[in-house]
Amino acid sequence: MENTYTDVELDFFEFEPTNSTWATKSTDNIANRDLVQSMYDVLLQNKEIKVLPATPASYNDVQVLPSFQYDAPSVSELNQYVITLLTSQLQLAKEVCSSTQFAVILKQRLLILRRIYHALLVRYHDKGNCETQSPSEPSCSTISLLPSVPRDVTTGSQALLEIGVKTGLSFLFSLLQQNWQVSGILGIPSLCNSVLETTIDLIRKLPPLCLANDSQLTDLGITSLEQVSEFLKNAVLHETAADEKGKLLSCEILLSIALQRGSLRYLLEWMSMALDASSMNKVLSSKLFRSGISEIEGGKQTARTNQSSGNEEEMSIYKAALYLIEVLASMAVNYSGGCASEADAGPFENSEVYIWGSNSSYQLAEGNQELILLPTKSKTFQQVQQMEAGQYCTFAVHADGHVTACGKGSYGRLGLGETANQSTPKPIPLDRPIRQLSSSKGSDGHTLALTEDGWVYSWGDGDYGKLGHGNCVTYKTPERILVPFAGKVVKYVHAG
Questions:
Q1: Domain 346-480, CATH 2.130.10.30 — does that match?
Q2: Which of 319, 230, 228 is nearest to 269 (CA)?
Q3: Contacts with 450 (C-beta within 8 Å, 6 or more apart), sequence order
Q4: Taking Cα atoms as reference points, which of 387, 405, 393, 388 lies closest to residue 363?
Q5: Are 444 and 410 contacting, i.e. CB atoms less than 8 angstroms apart?
Q6: With CB atoms 3.0 to 4.6 Å apart as the test, which of 119, 305, 366, 472 could cross-link to 19 if both were Cys?
Q7: CB neighbourhood size of 129 (10 A)
Q8: Domain map of the chain by residue range?
Q9: Which residues are bridge partners to 418 per DSSP?
Q10: How many whole angstroms separate alpha carbon 74 and alpha carbon 77?
Q11: In terms of Cα–Cα distance, which of 159, 129, 141, 145 is closest to 220?
Q12: What pLDDT does 4 receive?
């Protein structure tokens, strides 16, 4: 047994009943000290580990070091005494360091990791080996608890495909650049532009957002898209990389790819490139741009779109980038305000709440069911205008403005005045109707609540002053934040 676990005896090697449960545990849970303690308690309750009584250490300096009052020590005796002293000091330092809170939690985390890895090893790796091993071979319980992580195996066909695609793209890029240069010198039309025009036509015929889900794309496909985008971006920005028509076509292809990938990141990258290229006074197809804006806005041809582009067949890249920024900003305002808008919310009497995920701390209010893999209609949460998933807890803002909470209660995160876990939603004592609530996701749990008249309440863990009360105290019930919000109407809160 390793020195780290001299005070703990491991008994889970032969403890099979709980292997299936531990195999489903996520190793990310050891990052949270509450979960570490709860999982360690489970190990103790199941008697999968036994804490051994510590052997009291005896430090008797009289026995270790003679006084040398009458006889001078020899060199070897001095060396032996110095080594004895240093060894005792080292042992004392180890025991002091191992008794700190950090060391205790670290030992618990290592034990939990070993338990999870052992369950995974038995479940996925050793089952077949245990059935066929001979009596002389070591049992499954003696095999290392930290199996090597299996690497993704690349088959010969996949390797050949990757080589072919990457070399083919490199060859294509070289041909395009060479053709642009030769056509510029000879003054003849470039064949590359015909290839790019065909590419644009093909992208237009694709279903919307067909490249949006990266999980449905292979690593080779994602890498190829990035290489194509980088080549086209260089063609647009570098003066001698392509002719004028080639730059325009490259810019339009990049916009089409950004729209197909469906992420704000790619639209922002295109706008950044367009603003960098604005000094070249290039123009885009207005029809293509209007179609892209229509896709972003959900297929609606708004008056703003028609007014901006008009009946012109072309528009400058600079104007297109600015207008796209305006559209995205306007949509962000509309969508962020729409979630809390009372005018658009309508009645909540018939609202339905769907829940899924972990119920380890009763945060889903589904009794003893620990895991819900698919969205399931909740029978508990009704007439709700907002649901907020916190750190192992859940809050519901109901139609009349009162708030209920359930789940883990440590650090007073539920705002109920206690730290016990709650298996069913209980009302939080708030004297004013709440219209919006936000709970932290990555800390020990604190929550902000915004009333209909703009007051802000907070409760939960107060470390680092995150509750806004001028101290680091934990509040188990909601407390209004007065400074500097006194006399002001707050519109929105977010706990981070």
A1: yes
A2: 230
A3: 434, 435, 436, 437, 456, 490, 491, 492, 493
A4: 393
A5: yes
A6: 119
A7: 12
A8: 3-133, 168-338, 346-480
A9: none
A10: 5
A11: 159
A12: 43
Give the position of tokens 């080996």. Answer: 129
Q: Which residues contact 496 (CB under 8 A, 6 or more apart)?
A: 440, 441, 442
Those residues whose C-beta lies under 8 Å from the C-beta of residue 374, and which sit 6 or more positions away, are 356
Map tokens 């004013």 to a residue: 432
The pLDDT of residue 136 is above 60:
no
What is the rounded average pLDDT of the residues 37-50? 83
In 3D space, the residue among 413, 421, 420, 422 whose CA is nearest the CA of residue 440 turns out to be 413
Residues 446/396, Cβ–Cβ less than 8 Å? no
Query: What does each C-alpha distance from 203 to 181, 252, 266, 324, 342 come to in angstroms?
Result: 26, 10, 16, 20, 41
If DSSP states are collapsed to H, E and C, what string results for the chain? CCHHHCCEEECHHHCCCCHHHHHCCCHHHHHCHHHHHHHHHHHHHCCCEEECCCCCCCCCHHHHCCCCCCCCCCHHHHHHHHHHHHHHHHHHHHHHHHCCHHHHHHHHHHHHHHHHHHHHHHHHHCHHHHHHCCCCCCCHHHCCCCCCCCCCCCCHHHHHHHHHHHHHHHHHHHHHHHHHHHHHHHCCCCHHHHHHHHHHHHHHCCCCCCCCCHHHCCHHHHHHHHHHHHHHHHHHHCCCCCCHHHHHHHHHHHHHHHHHHCCHHHHHHHHHHHHHCHHHCCEEEHHHHHHHHHHHCCCCCCHHHHHHHCCCCEEEHHHHHHHHHHHHHHHHHHHHHHCCCHHHHCCCCCCCCEEEEECCCCCCCCCCCCEEEEEEECCCCCCEEEEEECCCEEEEEECCCCEEEEECCHHHCCCCCCCCCEEEEEECCCCCCEEEEEECCCCCCEEEEEECCCCEEEEECCHHHCCCCCCCCCEEEEEECCCCCCCCCCCCCCCC
pLDDT in tens, 403-448: 999 999 988 999 999 989 999 999 999 988 999 999 998 777 899 9
Sequence-distant (≥ 6) Cβ neighbours of residue 323 within 8 angstroms: 293, 308
Higher pLDDT: 17 or 320? It is 320
Q: What are phi and psi of 205, to 5 degrees?
A: -85, -10
Tens of pLDDT, residue by residue over 205-261, are 888 888 888 778 888 888 999 999 999 888 888 877 788 888 888 888 888 888 888
In whole angstroms, give the CA distance from residue 401 to residue 386: 10
Mean pLDDT of the chain: 79
Over residues 9-33, mean pLDDT: 76
**Pairwise pLDDT comparison (427 vs 192), residue with the higher score:** 427
Question: Above 60 in pLDDT, residue 338?
Answer: no
